[in-house]
Amino acid sequence: MEKLTLTTTDHIPIIAHLFSPKNSNNKLLLINSATGVKQHVYFSFANYFSEKGFTVITYDYRGIGLSKPKRMKDFKASMRIWGSEDYKTLTQYIKTHFEGHEKYCLGHSVGALILGMNKDSTMFKEFFFVGTQNAFVGNLKFKTKIEAYLGFGIVQPLATQLLGYFPAHWFGLGESLPKNCAYDWRTLILNKKSTNGLLEKIDDYSKELTQKVFVIRAEDDVWLTEKGVKSLLNTTYPNLKPTYRLVKTAESEKGEIGHVNFFRSYNRKLWDIILNELIHNGEYN
């Protein structure tokens, strides 16, 4: 594992890690993190695929983990900037240093939503979506819907306005978020257009993506619904070619997967779901 410091076009340092295999299969996997989830969560997963011959790259968006500034209040960042600047910085690095590699991208939650914000997304042979959807409240189950209205309609904007950033960790929602990242998240939840509500505010390349996408949804992910997942593929990425995989809790060693735990080391055997798809893709495409 090698630590990388990459600089965006607007001069923000992005900290990434490169997992280089001993015996490379000339395939590369980039991991786009979920909202407020530090790249360390994906290290075991990345190391597993590196052991299988893949070059793997993880990174933290600006404002998160190792890419967090000393002062969070009013730090300039948004989910749209994560896609158009931070993710773009990684794809440019990959294009420069791994030109001959077959390229894949895994988007976890918001990590899949930002693909349409970067024209370089066309370079990937296949995508993997884990725990992602159009998260509009109308797509959620009743209990989660109430929590979403209270949390994102009242608590989140008040806390963000008061502090100049959103203390997501107070509510068990991961790392604290820069102000405009929190407001973009609110758009995803409360705006009926959801992801498209963000894409219409930025250069949108989502309809140019025509690759295969392997879509994984955990049975016990309370923030995810089949309706929300299908909405994302039908309205935001209508030209991708999806295969859907529902992961049952019985397939987990601990009987829990949720929104993040697919990547925990105790769910290691679930990682073969992605590995088998990558191997199948290499053999038959």
From TrEMBL:
It holds the Pfam family Hydrolase_4. Keywords: Hydrolase. It comes from the Bacteria. The keyword 4Fe-4S does not apply. Residues 40-114 form the Serine aminopeptidase S33 domain. One of its GO terms (molecular function) is hydrolase activity. This is Alpha/beta hydrolase. It comes from Chryseobacterium piperi.
